[in-house]
Design goal:
This is Tail specific protease domain-containing protein. It comes from Prosthecobacter algae. It is built from 22 helices and 25 strands. The chain is an alpha+beta fold. It has three domains: about 25-165 and about 235-270, no CATH class; about 290-385, PDZ domain (Pdz3 Domain, Roll), CATH 2.30.42; about 395-535 and about 565-660 and about 700-720 and about 740-780, 2-enoyl-CoA Hydratase, Chain A, domain 1 (Alpha-Beta Complex). Helices cover about 40% and strands about 15% of the residues. Helix 2 runs antiparallel to helix 3, helix 2 packs across helix 10 and helix 15 packs parallel to helix 16.
């Protein structure tokens, strides 16, 4: 289960305004549920009946989705639900009856209210000492439900004490950080302070300070800003739970059905998913990287929607009145009345700001520069291109200190996007444009960075493979009947046939795994990364539910079913399901100890194999993997950065396995101090290494140039140092309260590259030396297919 109805933290709610959804029609959600159930039975890879066993899984999934920590329901509640619905939810759903979903949700809502009443009373009356030797279980998804209210109260006393402990530790960290910043500021001011005598010496005719004071005294003093009293730890904890309840109470029948049908879908496998209309819209935007709206990034701050980004060249940017950090208090369609948006869920505000191309939306705004004022801003909606997640590239020129100079092309690809309706957006076309420029610059090798790439269009994965191998099979698939099919790339010649590394991690999934597996099987590229990729070896298709509903029924809010229809396999015959793609060279990663990947999901389909396809290796001679691994091991053992990762991974694994935290402020402060001391030691050691390296390099460090789809055809390359965040994201962003991070963070590392990136450069050098391979670049001048 990847979604949860209780996500109420402001930071997790930032989203792009999309396209307005009209008032919800009276869709019969009982009928929607019935058709989703029939679709699952007939369309899913397993072709499994919606029987009593699936009914029991549905119930358990639904309870876990609502109460994932097992703290709101008691065992008595759960036993009651099971006795009524364990073997009957299938009958209810197939009879178009969704009342059990509503009933369970209403009881859940009531239990949350009871717990919040308990929280309010406890925070007011109970004295927490924070000196206990007791421990609290951190991850409770597998914990038993409290057997009764008395046991539940005991669990909640520990939960609240832990909540308050975290707030107190946060206050201490904030105070220490403020003190540190004040000291740094005072130090800088002292260094800038001019000589006193020089400061006192005034040019003739210049006013003396006394005169300045007199002028100032004549002016009325500005009233000091009223300083709001900060919330106490208890008030902040209470406010969080109140927001949780508000979020739960805002969910309507459509939301509840969404939770329920998502729980049913997940009973078949982790990647089968019911998608509401809003979720479908967001999915399409992720695939197309464009939308119709005003072009603004919203986030919730103090229960009000705040403008946190404005898309450059979008409708809001062109209109010019909407500014960063403005707060939206009302939304109106055209000349209609305003709808109050304070305390409203962010997604519902986004729904109201969505709209058709050319339509008008009015925003009632409290300007950031004058929060007491109110301003009405009218914006005509239009198409907005989202550039942040589009493919981009870098050209890295290595310093002479590392050996003979190399030019490395580095392509960053965060998803396999495509416009499946009009074909105007294509990952492959974008990568080909970037690659052509890199080849024109005569790169010695290419890195395709698929870290964090969760997949996307299967068609794009196949086409992209064709940039690197000549025509041949790319992936196989098997349906529920056992019928095996395969897909081929159709390019007669590879666009780029030079040395290549594919960089993956545990979150590289689906289409990423297809591409990486094919290039590994063809012996076309060296795969480098975490111990394995995600392990998603299944194929989904999206089926509109309304297509299966009666002709005259209201279908406007029926949603879609993303359903698993096939398993895919490597051309060598093995599946990537559960196992993922194991790299040729493994780099230490903290992700290897985290509970992520297909194996950690509920109800994954099993691993299996099918016969291999016939295909020709690109390189007959095997890669010198043993020597590459020996060289890598030597560097890893002597590289403090990777030793830090191994040390932190070991500590994290111990904490995960322990799954408890002590309810003692002194012990928590001790742990925090130890962690801080360890990290400060690492930072100090890193700073010393960087300083020594910089003195040795002088100006001869890495030269990096940044390529985007906007500047890829420019005559001159853009140095990384001149590349702004706005150019990278295509969006004007509000500054963070504690200052921007990014390039300054990377400057803390040797050569200004994070450890995995730097080591990948070293691996490329080894790869070139041991294979004596050099790229061909003639194809860079060829016309790029559009």
């Amino acid at each position: 289960m990847t979604r949860h109805p209780l996500s109420f933290v402001a930071a997790s709610l930032a989203t792009i305004t999309l396209a307005f959804t009209p008032a919800r029609a009276e869709t019969n959600f009982g009928q929607v549920a019935m058709h989703v159930a029939y679709m699952l039975q007939s369309q899913h890879y397993s072709h499994r009946d919606f029987d009593d066993e699936v009914s029991a899984k549905l119930l358990q999934n639904y309870l876990n989705l609502l109460d994932f920590r097992h703290v709101f329901f008691t065992q008595a509640d759960v036993d009651g639900f099971k006795s009524k619905y364990d073997t009957t939810l299938d009958d209810h759903v197939l009879m178009r009856n969704i009342s059990p979903a509503i009933e369970i949700y209403d009881i859940y809502k009531q239990r949350v209210k009871e717990r919040i009443d308990f929280t309010q009373k406890t925070l007011k009356d109970h004295k927490f000492t924070f000196d206990s030797t007791r421990t609290i279980e951190l991850k409770r998804d597998a914990a038993p439900y409290p057997k009764d209210k008395a046991e539940q109260d005991k669990i909640w006393l520990d939960i609240l004490e832990d909540n308050l402990l975290q707030e107190k530790l946060a206050d201490e960290a904030k105070a220490e950080d403020a003190k540190k910043k004040a000291e740094e500021k005072a130090k800088k001011e002292a260094e800038k302070k001019p000589d006193t005598a020089a400061a006192d010496k005034k040019p003739e005719g210049e006013k003396k300070p006394e005169a300045d004071k007199a002028v100032a005294a004549a002016k009325p003093a500005a009233a000091p800003a009223k300083e709001e009293k900060p919330f106490t730890a208890e008030e902040r904890v209470m406010k969080d739970y109140e927001r949780l309840l508000e979020s739960i109470e805002e969910n309507d029948q459509e939301d509840v059905v969404d939770f329920f049908l998502s729980s049913l879908s997940a009973a078949y496998d982790p990647h089968t998913e019911y998608m509401s209309v809003n979720e479908t819209d967001n999915f399409n935007i992720q695939m197309k990287h464009k939308l119709v709206g005003i072009g603004a990034l919203l986030g919730l701050v103090d229960d009000v929607a705040q403008i946190q980004g404005i898309v450059v060249g979008g409708p809001a940017d062109k209109q010019g009145e909407l500014k960063l950090n403005d707060k939206i208090t009302g939304v109106a369609q055209g000349d209609a009345e305003f709808v109050e948006t304070k305390y409203m869920k962010l997604q519902k505000i986004v729904d109201m700001i969505r709209g058709k191309d050319g339509s008008t939306v009015r925003l009632r705004v409290n300007p950031a520069d004058d929060p007491s004022a109110t301003k009405i801003i009218t914006i005509v909606r239009g198409e907005v291109e989202l550039k942040e997640k589009l493919a981009n590239a870098e050209l890295l020129l290595t310093p002479s200190e590392m050996g003979p100079p190399m030019k490395i092309g580095w392509i960053n690809l965060s998803s396999f996007y495509a416009d499946m309706e009009e074909g105007t957006v294509s990952t492959t076309d974008d990568v080909q444009r970037l690659l052509a420029r890199l080849m024109k610059e005569k790169i010695d090798g290419l890195v395709l960075d698929l870290r964090g790439n969760g997949g996307g269009s299967l068609e794009e994965a196949i086409r992209l493979t064709g940039l690197f191998v000549p025509s041949g099979p790319v992936v196989q698939a098997k349906d529920w009947r056992g019928s095996i099919s395969w897909r081929e790339c159709e390019t007669p010649k590879a666009f780029y046939d030079g040395p290549m590394i594919v960089l993956t991690d545990k979150t590289s999934a689906s289409a990423s795994e297809i591409l990486a597996a094919a290039l590994q099987d063809y012996r076309r590229a060296l795969i480098v990364g975490d111990k394995s990729t995600f392990g998603k070896g299944t194929v989904q298709t999206i089926l509109p539910v309304d297509r299966f509903m009666p002709f005259f029924s209201d279908k406007s809010r029926a949603g879609n079913l993303k359903v698993t229809i096939q398993k895919f396999y490597r051309i060598a015959g093995g599946s990537t399901q559960l196992k993922g793609v194991e790299p040729d060279l493994v780099l230490p990663s903290i992700r290897d100890v985290l509970d992520i990947g297909e194996g950690s999901a509920d109800n994954p389909l099993p691993y299996d194999t099918i016969p291999a396809r016939k295909y020709s290796l690109i390189t007959e001679k095997p890669y010198p993997l043993e020597e590459l691994r020996n060289r890598l091991t030597g560097r890893l053992n002597s590289n403090p950065e990777f030793q830090y990762i191994l040390d932190e991974s070991k500590r994290l694994k111990e904490r995960i396995d322990r799954n408890t935290a002590v309810l003692s402020l002194a012990e928590r402060e001790k742990e925090t101090a130890e962690t801080k001391a360890r990290r400060e030691k690492q930072e100090a050691e890193r700073a010393t290494r960087v300083k020594t390296l910089n003195e040795k390099l002088k100006q001869d460090g890495f030269k990096t140039y940044h390529l985007t789809l906007d500047n890829v055809d420019a005559a001159e390359l853009v140095p990384e140092s001149a590349f702004t965040r706005e150019q990278s994201t295509g969006m004007k962003m509000a500054a963070k309260a504690d200052g921007e991070e990014g390039a300054s963070e990377l400057s803390k590392f040797p050569y200004g590259l994070e450890p995995t990136k730097l080591e990948t450069v070293n691996i490329m050098r080894d790869f070139l030396e041991l294979t004596s391979k050099r790229p061909t670049t003639a194809k860079a001048e060829e016309k790029i297919a559009k």
